[in-house]
Amino acid sequence: MRNVSKFAALLTGAVALLSFPLWSPNPYITSAGVVVLSYAVLSTSWNFVGGFTGYMSLGHAAWFGLGAYGTGLLIARAGVPSFLALGLAGVIVALLAVPIGIAALRVRGASFVIVSIALVLVLLLVFQSWRSFTGGSDGLVVPRPFPDLLRPEHHVVFFYLFAVLLAVALLAWWTIDRSRFGLGLKAIREDEDKAQSLGVPTFAYKLVAFVVSATFTALGGGLYALWFGDLDPIFQFSILIGSYMVLMALLGGVRHLFGPLLGALLVGIAIEYFKMSYGDTQFHLVATGLLLAVVVLFMPDGVIPAVAGLLQRFRPQQSSIREVTAADLLEQNRSETKVEARR
Amino acid sequence: MSEQGLTTVELTKTFGGVCAVDHASVAFHHGRINAVIGPNGSGKTTFFNCVTGMIRPDSGTVAYRGRDVTGRAPHRIAAAGIGRSFQLCRIFPRMTVRENVLAAVRPRGLAGLLRSAHDPAQVERARGWLRRVGIDHLEDVEARDLSYGQQKLLELAGVLMADPETIMLDEPAGGVNPALIDRIAALVRELNGEGRTFIVVEHNMELVMSLSDHVVVFDRGRPIAEGPPDSVRSDPAVLEAYLGV
Amino acid sequence: MSGSLLFQSLVLGVLLGGLYALLAAGLTLYFGVMRVVMIAHAAFLVLAAYLAWDVHERFGVDPLLSMVVTVPLFFVLGVGFQRLLISRLRPASLTMMSVLLTFAVALVVEGMLGFVYSGTQRRVQLPYSAASIEVLGAQVAVVKLIAFGLAAVSLLALYLLLTRSRFGQALRATIQHPQAARLIGIDTDKVAGYGFGLGLATAAVGGTALALDSTIYPSLHWHWIGPLMAIIVVGGLGSIPGAAIAAMVLGIVQSLLQLPLGTTWAQTVFYLALFATLLVRPQGFFGGRLAQRF
Question: What's the structural domain count of chain B?
Fold first, then answer.
């Protein structure tokens, strides 16, 4: 019965989401929807590494930027057709992610976080300085793939394109989640050395997850470039976007398939709402920081377990697993000694 | 003893100024239950870590079944057929008991990697091991909610799931009640009867003397005596190491 | 490059290195006492710089005077931060969660700075801003010398505190082995709090030094945290001398590269050093017993 209701909920959600452009009141809101979907793609992509291996990358916008600029530069400088450029940029980033991953994954924990931040910062530096190639702070204009489309239709088309990319990312995440590869990754998250001693080739596994994550993030970036049409290093290699990815995944729950999507919906809608009501202020940073702090301190497992835990307090108390286990153990020991005495 | 088991030659590891393992040469008896004993600080765990790839030795070699496995990464040591448990029991706290054991499955090829982790055949095999160690009724419990003794059994089940030929146990009796020690000892004897080799680091002398066929005594980073339990028990060098006499 | 120009760059590099050394030492303190990577360190650095600028703007006094308020204030903030927030985190995931938490704090600080002072770039104008004196044949800006002087004095004070005082001994014990420290009666929680306070106090000094010579804006801290973190990884996490040496070396190299490559490209030397360290010796080059694969 639970499976049917779960499926029904999922279906309703999917329908509501996919029909959004139809009931959206105006094109501006539709474009906000595109932004929220793009956040969902990015946070889900981040979650391949953050959720499975527990390695937190705070500079994941590096891949977003590389995908965006890769696509943009291929179109603007080499005349490659739009979607071919997108695919090619994805391949290039995947190839780049291998040596970068090999270096970055040699360290763990906080060192890895430092390296991820350093990556996005150095890329920001390079892309800002290399004016002749990337356009630097003047920005890079990316020609639209469908130049004849009017703005509203443009937003609708890209809404569905992002939805497709999200679906592919979710499918990949789900496949890994239930697979032996995924179990190995989770073992790495729990206790990396123990996993290795049990036979899990931890470095290879981490690297694969890293490359997959980078690639999906880059594809999200490339699609964003095609949609938005204008790139600037400070917005593409952005620590803020990187922190959105982490915040959304953490808030929604990194251990769940739809966690990052949920986080993206909650945070993304809030961000877009604030942008519309108060304009682009520095307050984004403060709000993001405060929310991240709250999540880290009070609900590191995500909003759902936190809310469930809160509700549990108001329900009649059940005995916890711990109590059952201890009682069980006592029973067991008693029957054990009986068996031993008999021998 | 015609089969070559785990052998080390002149294995050495130094940390800063301390020589933890000092040119240790040991040939463990394949197919038997070997014990490694020695006073605290004699290098037993460091020796284990060097053999299983967690630490890279400074010099010397480790061979298993005639093949050189010196300095190989831990997962490749596991793939070679050597499993190990840890002194302070290590399990995957936020995974269920079942998942803890399933994590030991070594997938083959891309298809194997993408296959479901909860594939029925493997789940049955996992259940089999959980039944053997006696915690199959806790299958769905998260490992962090188990008692220490149960976690030790879980760790053992996981190690066994990887189907190792040689099993290295680091203080299996540490921190558990006598009934559980007996259960573990019985299991070790059973598994040895089925053809698995054991190398056990232990401080519990009663257990060592009753369980093992071959004892190696470590002191200051190297073996100082080896042989059947009775001969080692009365060896003057051993008494000196332990009692400082 | 001519000899005198080279020497000039060298001198500037040393001065810069001194400032890096002080800031990296602070960063190392947080890591040493609590295994916390304090990403917000640079944000507080910029905050201190803003406060120094503000004091100068509002009251017309020398920005150095702001240290009278900012150093003790930041010390108290540091202690408070450790006691109230860091200690709330679960020990198992402390390092990771603390990174996220301090990252969040950095965002909040940057946002508030932008909110209060707006994004306009600020610079302190002093009567001696443009003055320079001759040191061994090289022309050195007075403000840079003062900044170096501040850094050097603070580092010396830190060194004396750590090696000669009882508190310093307790701090070093807590860094080396918290359990053993507790066993001999050291209140490691209190010591950790003070360690944090000390770290943040160095940010106050560094920020004031920064204000003398640089243009400041809210997102400036990202230009500092990258190089600083690279320094402590290269130097070896947890080692103050290691951090100081790495800071000096990299500061000098950066300065030497500024002439041929320009300021922005010269900054990449930190990231290159970080990359090289990861490939060759992930635990860092100059010591740091704490730099295990944590």
Answer: 1
ipTM surpasses cut 0.95: no
pTM here is: 0.89
Whether C172 and C33 have beta carbons less than 8 Å apart is answered as no
Chain-centroid distance, C-alpha C282: 21
B152 close contact with A: CB closer than 8 A: no
Searching chain C, which residue's CA lies closest to the CA of residue A113?
Answer: C99
Taken as a whole, chain C contains a residue count of 294
Residue B82 lies in a domain: yes
Q: What is the pLDDT along chain A (343 residues), one digit of tens a residue?
A: 567 888 888 888 888 888 888 888 888 889 999 999 999 999 999 999 999 999 999 999 999 999 999 999 999 999 999 999 999 999 999 999 999 999 899 888 878 888 899 899 999 989 998 888 888 888 899 988 888 888 888 999 999 999 999 999 999 999 999 999 999 999 999 999 999 999 999 999 999 999 999 999 999 999 999 999 999 999 999 888 998 999 999 999 999 999 999 999 999 988 888 777 766 667 778 888 898 888 888 888 888 888 888 887 776 665 555 544 555 566 656 655 554 454 4
Query: At C225, phi and psi to the nearest 5?
Result: -65, -35
Q: Residue B184 CB: number of other CB atoms within 10 A?
A: 22
**Fold for domain A20-301?**
ABC transporter involved in vitamin B12 uptake, BtuC (1.10.3470)
Instruction: Name residue C118's beta-bridge partners.
Output: none
Chain A residues bordering chain C (beta-carbon distance below 8 Å): 54, 56, 58, 103-104, 106-111, 113-115, 117-118, 121-122, 125-126, 128-129, 239-240, 243, 246, 250, 281-293, 296-297, 300
* Facing C275 at nearest CB: one of A54, A103, A284: A103
Range of the domain at B82: 6-243
On the 0-12 / 13-18 / 19+ scale of CB atoms within 10 A, C229 is buried
